[in-house]
Design goal:
With 204 residues, the protein is an all-beta fold. The protein contains no helices and 15 strands. The protein has one domain: Jelly Rolls, CATH 2.60.120.200. Strands 1, 4, 6, 7, 8, 9, 10 and 14 form an 8-stranded antiparallel beta sheet that branches. Strand 6 and strand 7 form a beta hairpin. The termini are far apart. InterPro entries: ConA-like_dom_sf (IPR013320), DUF1349 (IPR009784). This is DUF1349 domain-containing protein.
């Protein structure tokens, strides 16, 4: 069992989880650097083709109740689908991820995936530059994904449920490199707030 990682901004510990190794470090100002392995990914193709996915994650169990978790992420894009990812994980075939990802057109893009036995895949919008802000919110039995380029207006990316029952969702981070040789991504300005997001569509 991997040792727990205690980040000063989070009220819960993170633990390395998954099939592939994941390197991580937290510096004195709270910057979390996460290194994902080559060919790492979290995706179950809905057409049934391809092998099973493999990835390494940092996951933790947040306290009960509603919250928001946000961070500024930076990705040194090199290969298609390189990404920094927030993940909500219930089981191997039930998870959701919010990605700042290198698209097939080689453009930094906000992407989301919701997986219930198989994955879907939805591109939200392109971003100029190699950094963006991502936010995960729990709202009762539902979840919301938002992204921002200026940390002022938050665009809704997804509003969904994973149908959690006996198994509670864990939340964490991934550095993925499905077509590449690995990737080191950073999460800065990590912010956890115990609150209920009252309107997922109003940009706040």
């Amino acid at each position: 069992m991997s040792a727990s990682i205690n980040h000063p901004a989070l009220p819960f510990a993170l633990t390395a989880f998954g099939d592939l190794p994941v390197k991580h470090a937290v510096d004195k100002v709270g910057t979390l650097t996460l290194t994902g392995a080559a060919t790492s990914d979290l995706f179950i193709d809905p057409n049934g083709s391809g092998g099973d996915y493999a990835a390494g994650m940092l996951l933790g169990l947040p306290p009960e109740g509603d919250f928001t978790l946000s961070a500024r992420v930076a990705v040194p894009f090199a290969s298609m689908f390189d990404a920094a990812v927030f993940v909500v994980y219930v089981a191997r075939d039930r998870f959701a991820k919010l990605c700042f990802e290198y698209s097939p057109q080689l453009r930094p893009t906000i992407v989301s995936v919701v997986t219930k036995e198989v994955s879907d895949d939805a591109n939200a919008f392109s971003v100029e530059g190699s950094s963006a802000s991502l936010r995960v919110s729990r709202i009762g039995p539902a979840w919301a994904f938002h992204a921002s380029t200026d940390d002022k207006h938050w665009s809704m990316v997804r509003y969904f449920s994973l149908g959690e029952s006996e198994e509670p969702a864990r939340v964490g981070m991934v550095g993925q490199s499905p077509t590449g040789e690995g990737i080191s991504v950073t999460f800065t300005e990590l912010t956890y707030t115990a609150r209920t997001l009252t309107d997922v569509r109003d940009g706040t």
